[in-house]
Amino acid sequence: MALRINTADVLGGDRVAMARAITLVENQLPEGEALLQSLFPHTGRAYRIGVTGPPGAGKSTLTNKLAVEYRRNGRTVGIIAVDPTSPFTGGAVLGDRVRMSDVELDSGVFIRSMASRGSLGGLSKTAAEAADVLDAAGMDIILMETVGVGQSELDIARAADTTLVVLVPESGDAVQAMKAGLMEIADIFVMNKADRAGAEQAMQAITTILGLRQGTTPQPPVIATAALEGKGVTGVAEAIERHRASLQAGDGLARRRHERLEQRVADLVIDRVRRHLWTSERRQLLSQGVAEILRGTRTPYDVAHELVRSF
Amino acid sequence: MALRINTADVLGGDRVAMARAITLVENQLPEGEALLQSLFPHTGRAYRIGVTGPPGAGKSTLTNKLAVEYRRNGRTVGIIAVDPTSPFTGGAVLGDRVRMSDVELDSGVFIRSMASRGSLGGLSKTAAEAADVLDAAGMDIILMETVGVGQSELDIARAADTTLVVLVPESGDAVQAMKAGLMEIADIFVMNKADRAGAEQAMQAITTILGLRQGTTPQPPVIATAALEGKGVTGVAEAIERHRASLQAGDGLARRRHERLEQRVADLVIDRVRRHLWTSERRQLLSQGVAEILRGTRTPYDVAHELVRSF
């Protein structure tokens, strides 16, 4: 499949070129990397917002309503929805797209679903590269929404300028969120479906746990929303602006972007090493080694050692 | 911290030696690897059961009740609860341990919580090695419970002989589970809190989606439980036995263990490579490179290329 993509078309915001560029990135083709090379100098202008939280918290709805809010202020919006591929249908689950219907016909909004399973170069790498494409194409705001709260999803949300963690009263107490690692990455908490029972207590619990934190970092705000009805969404956008302003007032944004790029480059390095690693000969060594481990004549450590020595 | 551990003590099921061995494994110390080397030939006897599902589904409770069930049949049980470290307290969240109270005073049960965040060698590697310790120490059954449904948690649960996916009616519809990648790894579904409203429909939805699957793999059973009241737990244990018998009837178990070991060795290889990779010089190259990227004179790809060339 040869996709001809003109860098200038992507930079000009051509939607077909943008879509094709992300497909190249997703498939980790060499042409994709060449394209990203040429796009990269044009990135850095967009503001990246990560949206994460447990499944069913209403992240897609909030993302959709935030996009509407930004469009109202004349900003262009790119949305990357990290949406696992189902092994049953072979395609992406369409639920989120349906809920994105408020904005999907708007030419100032570009929505892309990405598969989280089977992503070749690591999910956080691919998502960051897709964000680069949207950034270079001139999107003002990039919303990166993840499904679930696994390590790679957290990595994506964390690799944003501002990270929102969306919870609902039903997603259990603040301890559950803490267990999932959400407390440490949130710049802003959103208590969605806040019209439901238990919302007050859930917000109070988050605030209490945040108060136990050591150190002097400012406490993230906790904003109540009912995203489906559009309630509280303006408050979230304002909280994002305040966070952005506070990052830009000091060296916070520069530091965040430096760390993010260090992680990006380190991921690229491991990715390249991994690609060179598993030649067909080494794969065969691996399979033979495992057969010997199962016969009890070797251990995983011996076999790994032999493989490392073979470089 | 020098921990003196006698291999024979671990093999004899000495609880202090087992606990120390897992601490060595968690800290990824060289002595830990030497110990694992000597323990490895004594592994392979235990049956490993992965328990995963969204936060709040009652995985700890089910794990606890399954342990009671196995103890009633005279089997020894090791439990590895992958429990994220909180950055706020610096320690593991104790919620699960409390819920483990039915079995924690039983000398035939060994429970260990492991931190998922900041795990040095990758979570799936550390969890598999802890399972090796319990396997070598003579535990008949090893239950590996994970919090959340991220990639690394799924990897742990999948690296079991039988994988349980625990859902509740409230965890949303089957589409949510599918989105989190749970459908593809389940050997058995458990619909916990099945006395609540919506359980019937939720089970029906899972069965319907499973029916859409292509291929000829047998359809995983869906078992209703109310684990807190101990209801349905025997049914889960029986389903595990049926799955085990079907794996052992063909080459299923051998194939699963071969694949699992290939992944183990590949993880070890990448781990070693990574450890050799980030010398202080290369870290400095990385930081300088990122500064240049931020000044617009280089791209992440140039910098990664330079780093790979430096090996």
Key terms:
homodimer, 311 residues, alpha/beta, Rossmann fold, 13 helices, 7 strands, 12% strand
Descriptive overview:
The first copy, chain A, has 13 helices and seven strands. Chain A is of the alpha/beta class and 311 residues long. Chain A has two domains: 42-253, 3-Layer(aba) Sandwich (Rossmann fold); 278-309. A seven-stranded parallel β-sheet of chain A has the order 3-2-4-1-5-6-7, sandwiched between helices. The longest helix of chain A has 26 residues, at 252-277. Chain A is globular. Mean pLDDT of chain A is 84; it is low at 85-99. The interface between A and B is large, with 76 and 77 residues.
Q: How many helices of chain A?
A: 13
* Mean pLDDT over all positions of chain A: 84
What low-confidence regions of chain A span 5 or more consecutive residues with pLDDT below 50?
A: 85-99
CATH class of the largest domain in chain A: Alpha Beta
Briefly note the CATH topology name of the largest domain in chain A. Rossmann fold
Distance between the termini of chain A: 32 Å
Largest protein-protein interface: A-B, 76 and 77 residues
* Secondary structure category of chain A: alpha/beta
Q: Into which percentage range does the β-strand content of chain A fall?
A: 5-15%
Summary of the model, kept short:
The structure is a homodimer. Chain A is of the alpha/beta class and about 300 residues long. Chain A has helices spanning about 5-10, 15-25, 30-40, 60-70, 95-100, 125-135, 150-160, 175-180, 200-210, 235-250, 250-275, 280-295, 300-310; strands spanning about 45-50, 75-80, 110-115, 140-145, 160-165, 190, 220-225.
